[in-house]
Specification:
The chain is α/β, with parallel strands linked by helices. The chain is about 45% helix and about 10% strand.
């Protein structure tokens, strides 16, 4: 096979030519060793049985459809989303990524979906976009540990490019399949207001498409009465040309400042 690609007379010019003979001689032995090795442990950290936190809830084991409206805790919600297969994303992700923050947090920030780092760590907004969000919150003197942060879609959607996992935007159907998990999360946390970071989050929270660039910084009201502040997802700022990033960050902070004013006022807008 190698001689078909490159005749032997050229081998002496290859810096790795000295490795060819020993590698070829050991090929059969190495193949046998690989076959004899046990299967590798997958990255997925989904427990094998539905025991544990699920046992403490009223949820029946008949699947996520039957679980709607009966989840009793965020831990149980995490367990349920780990097994969710209502769309294809969950089959390939490492784990589901639920929100993080205190129950009864007055503000809930909702992004699009977990990224690569979030998928591996099991925590939302821990990658570059999360670091930018932290900077904005710090500038506004809004402690991150007093805010509940989550995503509209609970699994990481990606495509492989070599060994890299590149983010892919979830389809409307995939986001819709995750909507009841987000509604359960809102029901359990009971925030006073929501912040939609990006178009996917805005659509999930409001039920219709919102032109985020045109409507950013504005408050909308959900059918249940909760207010939703719409702004860009921090990852959008990361993709901007370097000369535009500082101004874009200031605009982002200005948008989020309205949520801070809501907290200070202590009343609905």
């Amino acid at each position: 096979m190698m001689q078909k690609e490159m005749p032997r007379k050229y081998w002496h010019n290859l810096p790795e030519a000295s490795l060819i003979a020993p590698l070829a001689a050991r090929a059969m032995q190495r193949s046998s060793m690989m076959i004899a090795q046990p299967a590798t442990t997958p990255l997925r950290r989904i427990p094998a049985t539905a025991t544990g936190t699920l046992a403490a809830t009223a949820m029946t084991p008949t699947g996520p459809q039957a679980a709607r409206g009966v989840i009793g805790s965020l831990l149980a919600l995490k367990d349920a989303t780990m097994r969710c297969r209502e769309c294809p994303i969950g089959e390939h992700a490492t784990q589901s990524v639920m929100g993080h923050g205190p129950l009864k947090a007055r503000l809930m920030f909702v992004g699009e979906q977990p990224g690569d780092q979030e998928d591996l760590r099991g925590q939302p907004f821990t990658g570059p976009a999360g670091q930018l969000l932290d900077r904005a919150l710090e500038k506004l003197q809004l402690p991150r540990d007093g805010i509940y942060v989550t995503n509209a879609v609970k699994h990481f959607k990606f495509e492989l490019r070599g060994k890299r996992r590149i983010h892919k935007t979830p389809t409307q159907r995939e986001a819709a399949a995750c909507l009841h998990w987000l509604d359960e999360e809102i029901r359990l946390v009971q925030p006073a207001a929501l912040v939609a970071l990006g178009a996917t989050a805005a659509r999930a929270l409001l039920g219709y498409a919102v032109p985020v660039t045109a409507e950013r910084g504005k408050w909308f009201r959900r059918a249940d009465g909760l207010q939703v502040l719409v702004t860009l997802h921090p990852s959008a700022l990361l993709r901007m040309p370097p000369e535009e990033k500082e101004e874009a960050f200031d605009d982002f902070v200005r948008d989020l400042g309205q949520a801070r004013e809501l907290l200070r006022a202590g009343t609905s807008l």
